[in-house]
Amino acid sequence: VLTEEDKSRVRAAWGPVSKNAELYGAETLTRLFTAYPATKTYFHHFDLSPGSSNLKTHGKKVIDAITEAVNNLDDVAGALSKLSDLHAQKLRVDPVNFKLLGHCLEVTIAAHNGGPLKPEVILSLDKFLCLVAKTLVSRYR
Question: 134: Cβ–Cβ under 8 A, 6 or more apart, which residues?
Answer without folding.
Answer: none
